[in-house]
Amino acid sequence: MTTITVLGTGSWGTALANVLLDNGHDVMMWGKTQQTVDELNHSKTNQKYLPGITLNENMQATSDLKKALSFSDYLIMAVPTKGIREVCQKINREADSKKVIVHVSKGIEPQTFKRISQMIEEEIHEDFFTGVGVLSGPSHAEEVALRQPTTVAVASDNEAIRTMTQDLFMSDYFRVYTNDDLIGVEIGGALKNIIALAVGITDGLGHGDNAKAALMTRGLAEITRLGTKMGADPMTFLGLAGIGDLIVTCTSVHSRNWKCGNMLGKGLSLEEALSRMGMVVEGVRTTEAAFEMAQTYNVEMPITEALYGVLFNNEPLETNVKTLMNREKTNE
Ligand SMILES: NC(=O)c1ccc[n+]([C@@H]2O[C@H](COP(=O)([O-])OP(=O)(O)OC[C@H]3O[C@@H](n4cnc5c(N)ncnc54)[C@H](O)[C@@H]3O)[C@@H](O)[C@H]2O)c1
Ligand SMILES: O=P(O)(O)OC[C@H](O)CO
């Protein structure tokens, strides 16, 4: 049995804590919302994020970060990309020992173009830092919390973090592969959300499966182009953190990014769609980052550019579909 601290009491942090508890580990969750913390402790549920699901009976949580950090030196960080730096700064204030941090978030920071492991490395003081990894792949919290078969990859430059994380999470319903391409695993997880938004839009517009397949296939080409420019191994995009996650996010009824895109396709504004979601839709912020990266590094990303125009410049959906279809003819 290992002690583990999970930071973030949203859908994904809760589902992953449940996997670790099912594996017999001693887990402490930390969240900033006292009501959710109380519910996890007393009802063993998290109705806002995982409605109708009863969690492991040993589920425990606290809103006291110092207590959560003194519980374990192995941290799972499960907060949206936007909150990563803030949580790291809080760790610097409250920690008293070195930590391994495995994050499970999927995004890239606009303007800096930083991946999440890079933000963590920048923010966490060396006195509190052992190393960083990422757990990613096709995995919706709603299914993991129901113990439905799921496969993911763990990546880190540190082999001990890869194998330790694999050992802690592996179970008969949660299979973990190691991967030594940290850049590729993080980029794949982040960029697939852009394509899922685009697929949601095309589905919302009433287009068919041909359009969906086209966006996924040409989307994977964009992800691979930018990813390799950032230093990823192109083969990673044919694995769980690449095409695997792209498939699930573009086709699952659980996907927040697909649902948000679908509402846009049906005519809602971005503000309306986001407020109806009530959960993080990482692809919106990542579209901003990837659009800027494409310009800066001169990478061709037509789907990302079209989506950026829709999300941030109020460009009409149908016009952008026509623009994509009528781009200069080219070779596949
Ligand atoms: N939900 C999934 O199925 C799933 C699966 C794989 C990866 N992810 C990724 O995990 C990350 C978290 O997603 P989620 O689905 O759990 O989101 P969510 O919207 O369900 O929950 C987010 C949680 O983070 C908390 N939070 C937000 N900002 C915070 C801050 N600054 N400090 C502390 N807590 C903060 C919120 O209170 C909430 O509890 C995202 O990057 C997402 O892409 C989600
Ligand atoms: O629900 P989404 O769109 O945030 O996707 C969640 C996970 O990344 C799927 O693997």
Task: Tell me the layout of helices and strands.
Layout: E1 3-7, H1 11-22, E2 26-30, H2 34-42, E3 61-62, H3 65-71, E4 74-77, H4 84-94, E5 99-103, H5 116-123, E6 129-136, H6 141-144, E7 150-156, H7 159-169, E8 174-179, H8 182-204, H9 209-229, H10 240-251, H11 256-265, H12 270-277, H13 282-297, H14 302-313, H15 317-325
Parallel strand pairs: 1-2, 1-4, 2-3, 4-5, 5-6, 7-8
Antiparallel strand pairs: 6-7
Helix pairs in contact: 4-5, 8-9, 8-10, 8-11, 8-13, 9-10, 11-12, 13-14, 14-15
The protein binds nicotinamide-adenine-dinucleotide and SN-glycerol-3-phosphate.
Binding site for sn-glycerol 3-phosphate: 106, 137, 139, 192, 245, 255-257
Binding site for substrate: 106, 256-257
Main location: cytoplasm
Give the name of the CATH superfamily of the largest domain.
Answer: NAD(P)-binding Rossmann-like Domain
Average the pLDDT over all residues and give the rounded result: 97
**Compounds present?**
nicotinamide-adenine-dinucleotide, SN-glycerol-3-phosphate
Strand order of the largest sheet: 3-2-1-4-5-6-7-8
